[in-house]
Amino acid sequence: MQFGIFTVGDVATDPHTGRTPTEYERIKAMVALAQKAEEVGLDVFATGEHHNPPFVPSSPTTMLGYVAARTERLVLSTSTTLITTNDPVKIAEDYAMLQHLADGRVDLMMGRGNTGPVYPWFGKDIREGINLAVENYALLRRLWREDVVNWEGKFRTPLQGFTSTPRPLDGVPPFVWHGSIRSPEIAEQAAYYGDGFFHNNIFWPKEHTKSLIDLYRQRYAHYGHGTPEQAVVGLGGHVYMRHNSRDAIREFRPVFDHSPVMGGGMSLEEYMEQTPLTVGTPEQVIEKTLTFREHFGDYQRQLFMVDGGGIPLNTALEQIELLGEEVVPVLREEFAKNRPADVPDAPTHTSLLAAREAERARTTGPVA
């Protein structure tokens, strides 16, 4: 099982000091978070993709390419790649290039985004969001798996005899997660292709999250990829930790209250009760996270948000240290207990390459 962090890259005011970082500072902070994640033994760093203030990560491949040069083991991912407003040809090229530069340490999460005005900025219609996601991803898969593509669809110009370059590393495309917090159509898409399904459940009650994950698992089995339990699932989480829970609550409450997403409605305590947000001690984070398996079954990837909302860099780095030193080692041990042998690990370039070679050997037989 993989553990890591994700960031949405928002530029927000620290409610304790009133200071707002510059875009330069926020971008550099995201790099520092990734490097700290590797230093403390986490597995994954994921960045969002946004094209509007107050967010800075408009070019995830630029960010991840920079991080790739400064890390050795970390899996580099996205917490959203906008399959709706990006050209699938450019996605195919950019992430294959990143895959080569990072020696295969790349996967990505397809998403539709949560900002309506982005669509017309890129010449798209938000009312076609689902259809764009379906058509664009179908083309992306072909671009990565076929050397020469002839294609015609609804949303972009046709392709005739087109070859996307560079080709995926070792002929193995990056693994894809489909991210959704509300759309059964996306769960169905992930199941149809046998890809991963990531529910970033940080804003949602467990009943809603469970309904989408259960749908994905059932449809994954329906399409013949394995049992429902073998489907590849990822989850989000949101944590703020101190060794004294009262200190954690006192420090995080202003962040919560000033949040344009979390604040202004239910109290922090009610929010923690209904969503995965955990503000407290490392032990409380462990306890809450372990309930995810009870609700959703064995899964493959757990990503935590530790920054955002104006949390300063030093504090976010402290959160990563607590994850690496006190939380994740316990979670690894506990999640491994009673895990069925046929539940797969999170796919990596190495495991996907090995699976392809094994399939080739099975279908061709031994060489005389």
Automatic annotation (TrEMBL):
UniProt keyword annotation of Nucleotide-binding present: no
Keyword vocabulary terms for this entry: Monooxygenase, Oxidoreductase
Matches recorded under Gene3D superfamilies: Luciferase-like domain
Pfam families: Bac_luciferase
Classification via SUPFAM superfamilies: Bacterial luciferase-like
GO molecular function: monooxygenase activity; oxidoreductase activity, acting on paired donors, with incorporation or reduction of molecular oxygen
Top-rank taxon: Bacteria
GO cellular component: cytosol
NCBIfam families from the UniProt entry: LLM_CE1758_fam (TIGR04036)
Protein name: LLM class flavin-dependent oxidoreductase
